[in-house]
Design a protein that fits this description.
The chain has 208 residues and is α/β, with parallel strands linked by helices. 34% of the residues lie in helices and 22% in strands. The protein has a seven-stranded mixed beta sheet, with helices on both faces. Strands 4-6 form a two-stranded parallel ribbon. Strands 8-9 form a two-stranded antiparallel sheet.
């Protein structure tokens, strides 16, 4: 697993987007990275739960801590997880984003971070297709790189990730407090126990 210092990879003043399925995904999978870069212009889009009277205000409180522009969508996130139309997901992303060109985009892996959540996978595939088609422009995409051994353990960084970010105790604590105090998950919840001390990503770059 390669380890890099993040400041060498995200330039000051860059405009970066985080595109996730749910409010709290941004914190769980890359919240430390966001907190480490207050000099970056962050746009954070979650595709679900805009109408959720509990989760929606919590998301916006988290955005204030991150110093980010937060945007919410309302695609179906029912317990049945009925597959969504690929084109609808792509169009929703384009309609919600205030811009279609970024220096860096972060999103889910096409196989998700744990076994398994269809909305995570659909979000990643939509972002990738938008990038390949040119509807969404960026120099590079970082996909969250975590796995749970087919539910054998809590999500952990993938051993073959291109990039890992080791969080300081201070940053990790800030991240943990957003999950427990802002989003309100108990300290023995899946979300709190999952909150990684090390964040990991696969990198894809645009062809020169």
């Amino acid at each position: 697993m390669k380890n890099f210092t993040c400041t060498t990879h995200i330039k000051q003043g860059s405009h970066c987007a985080v595109i996730v399925a749910h409010p709290d995904d941004e914190t769980l999978w890359c919240g430390g990275l966001i907190l480490m870069h207050p000099d970056v212009k962050w746009t954070i889009l979650t595709l679900c739960r805009k109408s959720d009277s509990d989760r929606s205000p919590k998301f916006h409180k988290a955005m204030k801590i991150f110093g980010a522009k937060g945007i919410m969508g309302d695609i179906d996130d029912g317990p049945d997880q009925i597959p969504l139309d690929e084109q609808d997901v792509q169009d929703t992303i384009i309609d919600l984003l205030p811009a279609t060109k970024f220096d860096l985009i972060l999103t889910h892996s096409t196989s998700g971070e744990y076994t398994r959540h269809l909305r995570h996978e659909e979000t990643a595939k939509a972002v990738l297709k938008l990038w390949n088609s040119g509807r969404l422009q960026t120099e590079q995409i970082w996909f969250f790189a975590y796995e749970d051994g087919d539910k054998k353990y809590l999500p952990r960084p993938c051993h073959d990730a291109d990039l890992t970010v080791k969080l300081s105790d201070k940053i990790r604590q800030q991240k943990f407090e957003i999950i427990t105090q802002i989003y309100g998950f108990s300290e023995d919840s899946f979300e709190a126990k999952t909150t990684p001390r090390q964040e990991a990503f696969w990198q894809s770059r645009a062809a020169c």
